Amino acid sequence: MEIALKEQILGIVTPYPERVLGNVPIFITKDDQEAQHLCLLLSRILKAMAHDLENGVYIIVKH
């Protein structure tokens, strides 16, 4: 029987580092536009999905 992790948060992208905490990589950007662009790039590179939490924080999730 094989056990595998199906979903996991690969990273957090935000221009507001005071809003996040955790044991995943946190990418701090200078503004929201840079955060959106970085999310797009990371999601393509990691073959994952970027999710907007609508508070200036984005998470990159492998589904």
Description:
The chain is an alpha+beta fold and 63 residues long. It has one domain (8-62). It is built from one helix and four strands. It has a four-stranded mixed sheet, covered by helices on one side. It is globular and about 45 Å long.
Question: Main attributes?
Answer:
globular; 63 residues; four-stranded mixed sheet; alpha+beta
* Radius of gyration over all CA atoms, rounded: 12 Å
The number of distinct structural domains comes to: 1
**Numbering strands along the chain, what is their spatial order in the largest sheet?**
2-1-4-3
Which band does the percent of strand residues land in? 25-35%
Low-confidence stretches: none
Distance between the termini: 21 Å
Helix content percent band: 10-25%
Quick rundown:
The protein has about 60 residues and is of the alpha+beta class. It contains 1 helix and 4 strands. It has one domain (about 10-60).
Layout of helices and strands:
Elements lengths: L7 E7 L11 E3 L3 H15 L2 E4 L5 E5 L1
Parallel strand pairs: 1-2
Antiparallel strand pairs: 1-4, 3-4
